[in-house]
Amino acid sequence: MTELPHTRTRTVHWLATAAALAAVLGATALLQPATATTAPPRATGAAPDPARAHYPLECGPHASGIDVLDKASADFDGDGTPETVAAVRCAAHGGTPPSAVFVLSRPAGADRPRIAGTLVSAKEGMTVKDLAVRGTTVSATLLGYSSSEVPRCCPDRQRKVKWEWRDGKFVLRAAPVAGGGLSV
User: What angle do CA 118, 97, 49 make, to 5 degrees?
Assistant: First the structure.
């Protein structure tokens, strides 16, 4: 049986198809709305200063203020204004007070940053280390204690965690527990 001439594909057909596809893609790229963007908006202005914030920590009479242990900034909500993530604790002359992690924003016209969210409360009794921000994800290592018998200087539990900004809030994602028994 012989093939009809119009049913065979030739190089010219493939070239015509590729040219048509390129024209459609090019037109689509040119006709995007002016607000369309492929990159997240860049944050403008200074990030909130964690040293100027008022934290809801109950430090007691022997503490001498608040220590900012670590900080990182990013524009999590995409509004063009950066937020700051701060790991803080009560400033104590001895021992290891528990840490807290707060997200700070800078309201228009306010002289102090405000707390927009709490990722780790000091009431959880953990120590936070390795705080980092990459894109809109906050990561840290949480150190904790298996019982009240463990000295507060020497945490015996550890877990890496990440909070991902999704749908207007931070969602906690804990890393798998290494060795089976090191979770907090």
Answer: 45
